[in-house]
Design goal:
The protein has helices spanning 14-23, 25-31, 54-63, 72-75, 77-83, 92-102, 108-111, 115-126, 137-154, 165-181, 193-223, 229-234, 246-259, 262-277, 279-291, 302-305, 307-319, 352-355, 398-412; strands spanning 39-43, 47-51, 68-70, 326-330, 334-335, 341-342, 347-350. By secondary structure, the chain is an alpha+beta fold.
């Protein structure tokens, strides 16, 4: 038995709204009058909780993160077979050791060598745009993000990749969505077009990753470590002095292709949308960018040299967080700081889309206001604003995502 907790009124319970929930998840969550500072039990045929209590969120993501694991879509054997056994799908001691080994590759300073390449790829993508000609900004940002990802992973060797490599990454993403959100039973074993395309795609991806690993292993002793992720990962030293195996390097590259470009692309698409609706803010950012053009190494310094441009990106992440929900499952029966008891194997939803609208911290939450993140503003609590998660599973690529987003936005504007 689970201790009674605040729950959604019967007329609004998810069990009665399930078909609509499947189609319009965020729409239904927006309709709920979620009581902030409470953890809400939702009835979905299993023990499901929506965490809107600050202390509960901090407890699950940070304080006792080891007691709450990611969704089985990632950490189950099938999830790891599909997504690799890298940082994304590891848990407990394995995750801690792996993150410790990989962390130096993703600190702020490690992202800086990519800055000028990000700008050049953005300018190249923009060269195909024509004045007064509408473009699909979501598609363009996705393509740009993928081009930058491939360059940061493979460096100059990206030019020698299989011409179908980028499309293979896209097909793998579609397959992941098919597995996670599809309704067909045994869908991974059916000869559907999605499954067939995925099988071809993963062969292309593996072929190029393993070829790159072999070349980096062979050349690193003579030429040193090049600054792209495939080379850096091939030379990672674990605490015991050993290197990652070829399979482990492959899994980490696979993680980058899973989470390394879509969040940036989605975030920039929404940022440009919000700026189009707020031309006065757009003009303010253009003035800031123009005034900073004579700063040496502007790209590398953009987060501090363009504070309001960075603030606009952060505010966009607040209103439309690229990762709109996180799911955690307790390994055993737990009592959260709010006093709510959650049983083992229940599902805990932590929703930035909801918490980023916390009215006591963000007045008029639907209004686009970059001043909320201006240098003079007080930073919001981590348990209320967490676009990259928090705690030991905080997105390791967040520094690069911040840099990339601001450089791309400032180049476009």
């Amino acid at each position: 038995m689970v201790e009674r907790s605040p729950s959604v009124p019967r007329s609004e319970q998810l069990v009665y709204q399930l078909p609509w929930f499947i189609r319009r998840r965020l729409g239904l969550l927006s309709r709920y009058k979620i009581p902030y500072d409470q953890t809400v039990r939702m009835r979905l045929g299993e023990s499901t909780f929506m965490l809107a209590h600050k202390a509960d969120i901090h407890d699950v993501l940070v304080t006792r993160a080891r007691n709450f694991v990611k969704t089985p879509n990632l950490v189950s054997e099938q999830g790891r077979k599909r997504a690799g056994r890298g940082l994304l799908t590891s848990t407990g001691d394995q995750h801690q050791q792996l993150r410790r080994a990989l962390q130096p590759l993703f600190v702020n300073s490690a992202a800086l060598p990519f800055a000028d390449a990000i700008q050049s790829h953005t300018e190249k993508r923009m060269s195909s745009w024509r004045d007064q000609q509408p473009i699909d900004i979501s598609r363009e940002m996705t393509r740009l993000g993928l081009e930058i990802l491939i360059r940061t992973v493979f460096g100059s060797e990206a030019d020698q990749l299989d011409p179908n490599f980028a499309e293979a990454i896209t097909e793998r993403r579609r397959y992941n969505e098919y597995v996670i959100f599809g309704k067909l039973p045994f869908r991974t074993h059916l000869p559907t077009p999605t499954v067939r395309k995925y099988r071809r795609a993963i062969k292309i991806i593996d072929k190029e990753i393993y070829r790159g690993i072999r070349e980096r292993r062979r050349s690193s002793s003579e030429q040193g470590t090049a600054h792209h992720f495939l080379s850096l990962l091939s030379n990672v030293q674990r605490p015991d002095g050993t290197q990652l195996s070829d399979e482990q390097v492959r899994d980490e590259v696979l993680t980058l292709t899973t989470a390394g470009y879509e969040t940036v692309a989605d975030g920039l698409s929404w940022t440009l949308y919000l700026l189009a609706k707020n031309p006065d803010i757009q003009e303010m950012l253009r003035d800031e960018i123009a005034a900073a053009q004579n700063i040496p190494d502007l790209n590398a310094k953009c987060l501090t040299a363009l504070p309001m441009t960075y603030a606009a990106v952060q505010e966009s992440w607040r209103i439309y967080p690229p990762t709109w929900i996180y799911v955690r499952t307790p390994l055993k029966d737990e009592t959260l700081p709010s006093g709510i008891k959650v049983p083992a194997s229940s599902r805990l939803y932590l929703c930035p889309f909801i918490m980023h609208r916390y009215p006591a911290v963000f007045p008029k939450p639907e209004q686009f206001d970059p001043n909320r993140f201006a240098p003079s503003a007080e930073p919001p609590p981590r348990s209320i604003y967490f676009p990259f998660g928090d705690g030991p599973h905080l997105c390791i690529g967040a520094p690069l995502a911040r840099l990339e987003s601001v450089i791309i936005l400032s180049t476009i504007l």
